[in-house]
Q: What sequence folds into this?
């Protein structure tokens, strides 16, 4: 557990409440059981996740089930950054009470940043999808958030790869067919030293490139381990608007 001094470090998180979590903890066994009645879910590498202390789960993003499955099946409860558009109506209330963190992807969102830092500084875990939008899951674009949180907190980043959460040719909002096998492959943590305030853009970009390379290596390992491939691109015209920022094979724009 971090001290109050950590919460007063910049950006400050001492005035930010810890996300709701009673549904996150209480419903995990029930949710796993319900999902297990429809899909064959296999979790690999759970022993690689630190049993205590802050952790950042950084996952590829293939389908709509990725976030819920991370919350249900990760070895530890996860507070995942979730696009703010999902926090509407009953679904939005459920996400809030299950500890998920709303994120506005198109403008600076200090509230989301401080909520994530509150989680990490209290020794819990957060989840992030560096690709931003659902797609191939091949990590072609890697947004800078995972690197930023790693640099601020010093928390290890655990790579996560999802297979089977979207059928080939399926839309971004589609569910896999009943009985589908879903593989969740966790990898070795990647740690960067915490950087004091202020963190520079160059630091974050360099760390993002290193993290992306680590996740790409893990993606290749996950494919070899499971013998699986990703579902390919979304159907033409099916895209979720997302900022054209982050690290790619061409570097950091």
A:
């Amino acid at each position: 557990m971090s001290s109050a001094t950590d919460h007063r470090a910049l950006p400050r998180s001492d005035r930010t409440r810890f996300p709701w979590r009673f549904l996150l903890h209480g419903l995990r066994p029930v949710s796993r059981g319900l999902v297990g009645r429809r899909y064959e879910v296999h979790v690999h590498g759970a022993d690689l996740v630190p049993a205590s202390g802050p952790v950042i789960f950084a996952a590829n993003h293939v389908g709509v089930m990725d976030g819920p499955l991370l919350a249900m099946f990760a070895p530890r409860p996860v507070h995942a950054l979730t696009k703010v558009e999902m926090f509407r109506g009953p679904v939005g209330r459920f996400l809030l009470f299950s500890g998920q963190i709303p994120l506005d992807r198109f403008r600076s969102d200090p509230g989301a940043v401080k909520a994530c830092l509150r989680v990490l500084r209290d020794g819990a875990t957060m989840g992030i999808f560096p690709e931003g939008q659902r797609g191939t899951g091949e990590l072609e674009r890697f947004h800078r958030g995972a690197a930023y949180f790693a640099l601020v907190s010093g928390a290890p980043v655990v790579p996560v790869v999802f297979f089977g959460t979207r059928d080939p040719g399926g839309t971004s909002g589609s569910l896999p067919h009943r009985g589908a096998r879903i593989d969740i492959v966790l990898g070795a943590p990647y740690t960067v030293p915490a950087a004091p305030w202020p963190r520079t853009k160059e630091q974050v970009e360099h760390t993002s490139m290193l993290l992306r390379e680590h996740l790409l290596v893990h993606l290749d390992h996950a494919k070899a381990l499971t013998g699986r491939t990703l579902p390919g691109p979304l159907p033409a015209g099916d895209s979720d608007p997302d900022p054209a920022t982050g690290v790619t094979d061409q570097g950091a724009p």
Notes: The radius of gyration is 17 Å. The first helix runs from residue 4 to 7. The chain has one domain: 4-226.
